[in-house]
Amino acid sequence: MSLTLKFLLLLFLSHHVDSFGTIVKFLPGFEGPLPFELETGYVGIGEEEDVQVFYYFIKSEKNPKEDPLLLWLDGGPGCSSLGGLLFENGPLALKSKVYNGSTPSLVSTPYSWTKMANIIYLDQPVGAGFSYSRTPLGKTSDTSEVKRIHKFLQKWLSKHPQFMSNSFYVTGDSYSGMIVPALVQEISKGNYICCNPPINLQGYVLGNPITYAEHEKNYRIPFAHGMSLISDELYKSLKRACKGNYENVDPSNTKCLKLVEEYHKCTDKINSQHTLLPDCDKKGMGETSPDCYYYLYFLIERWANDEKVREALHIRKGTKGQWDRCNWTIPYDNNILSSVPYHANNSFRGYRSLIYSGDHDITMPFQATQAWIKSLNYSIVHDWRPWMIQDQIAGYTRTYSNKMTFATIKGGGHTAEYLPNETSIMFQRWISGQPL
Fold first, then answer.
1. Is the pLDDT assigned to residue 201 strictly greater than 70?
2. Angstrom distances, CA of residue 98 to CA of 30, 104, 129, 279, 307
3. Domain boundaries, the chain
4. Which residues pair with 45 in a beta bridge?
5. What b/e readout covers 181-193, taking b as 16+ CB neighbours within 10 angstroms?
6. Could you tell me the maximum CA-CA distance found in the chain, to the nearest angstrom?
7. What is the pTM (predicted TM-score) of this model?
8. 16 confidence band (pLDDT: 50, 70, 90)
9. Phi, psi dihedrals of residue 229, rounded to the nearest 5°
10. DSSP run (H or E) holding 389
11. What is the DSSP code string of 32-97?
12. Can you tell me the mean pLDDT for 243-266?
């Protein structure tokens, strides 16, 4: 081979690798070099690769060659996985201090899941976070996204073959409860089809997952009663008049409608994501008060829209205007009505699963999650018991014969961000095969 050809080949290969993923050693807002290995990049999906999905990949701080590989998906649909990274289970968090125009500060966390796992944080669907499309996108859907994410994984692993043999888990919370079980099934089926190398799929983890929304919303009223947010009398009347259906009430059932209205008067000003926290602004737009928990949502938007941050993350110029924590404008068809059949199939195929619930979440009450788990009809292996952290009860757990573990996080909310330390300890015990 001539020197010129060799040079051109090297140039092509270096460009090809660079266009896929880049190592990030420093991030604005964090002092000094990052104490972990971060790679960011885009993966093109489709024949023309018009869809460019963005990811953050963080290597395990323990033993990346052998530790599990996780894919983390945020909810929404349309929320960026940067939220999962900086609020829930990543090695960095935003420092909560009043914004003064400079880049918000980042600090190391003690509770990162990357202490014992490699994690790919993926911005999906397209339009979420820094993912974008080169051509105008039509409506996407749950099932389309499942196929896209599967293709993303195959491509990503083909470029990172050193992780092909690592145990692989799909993880996420909230709306990803509709995507994760279907994705697990898709990967499982794909592993039996020619010609991509199989993904070493072992199981999945879901927090406060939306599973069968139409039915699950009916558990908000029993939850509110259990938390003393409504009176015994109102609850008894609701049960009698509505017969357990509080959401899609027959318009002719005026008695039930009136009582549901009473319920809303009692609960509408409660923070539905975490009943113990003030119901201050969750949108992260400028009017949030700095003493509100959700001021962090304002700070993450300032951080991700900082030009220096975008350069450090290697965001392609001109591909994304305003970065939003959650993009609610993505045309989307919620076409998986229930993910329960997927859970059943995945259990049948022998995949492990951890389903956990913050027990102060009205949005997706723990009773709703327990109800669909019970509907799978698996026998109980270890019955309801407390799980402990340093002699203190951190929640309650139960395990089933289908390798499913259910756990509550005592004092937790809709996502892991409310009690990341407890959630991390629970995850680390489960992933290493220990009892909680």
1. yes
2. 17, 9, 24, 19, 20
3. 20-215+293-431, 230-267
4. 51
5. bbbbbbbbebeee
6. 88
7. 0.93
8. very low
9. -90, -20
10. strand 380-389
11. SS-SS-EEEEEEEESTT--EEEEEEEE--SS-TTTS-EEEEE--TTTB-THHIIIIIISSEEE---
12. 94
Provide the total of helices (H) and of strands (E) in the chain, helices listed first: 13, 16
Structure-block tokens of residue 346: 């995945």
Beta bridge partners of 57: 39, 120
In the structure encoding, which two tokens stand for residue 316, read together?
A: 């392609």
362-379 confidence digits (pLDDT tens): 999 999 999 999 999 999
Q: Is residue 312 within a helix (H) or strand (E), and if so which, with residue range? A: helix 307-313
Handedness of CA 238, 242, 245, 251 (dihedral sign): negative
Active site residue 414: yes
pLDDT digits (tens, 9 = 90+) for 397-429: 999 999 999 999 999 999 999 999 999 999 999
User: Measuring CA to CA, which residue among 421, 418, 398, 420 is closest to residue 408?
Assistant: 398
Question: Does the N-terminal peptide bond of residue 110 adopt cis geometry, omega within 30 degrees of 0?
Answer: no
150 is catalytic: no
CB 88 within 8 A of CB 118: no
Choose the catalytic residue: 123, 173, 324, 361. Answer: 361
99 Cβ neighbours under 8 A, 6+ residues apart? 290, 298, 299, 302
* Domain 20-215+293-431: CATH architecture, name and number where available: 3-Layer(aba) Sandwich (3.40)
Catalytic residue among 67, 215, 414, 424: 414
Flag whether pLDDT at 8 surpasses 70: no
What kind and span of H or E run contains 171?
strand 168-173
74 is catalytic: no
The whole-angstrom separation of Cα 267 and Cα 275 is 10
User: What's the token pair of residue 390?
Assistant: 């340093």
DSSP state of 126: B
pLDDT tens digit string along 274-320? 999 999 876 655 577 888 999 999 999 999 999 999 999 999 999 99
Whole-angstrom distance, CA of residue 29 vs CA of residue 37: 17
Cα–Cα distance for residue pair 251/361, rounded to 1 Å: 28
Catalytic residue of the set 112, 174, 347, 424? 174
Q: What share of the chain is helix, strand, coil (3-state, %, to 5)?
A: 35, 20, 45
Q: Are 81 and 280 in contact (CB under 8 A)?
A: no
Amino acid found at 264: H
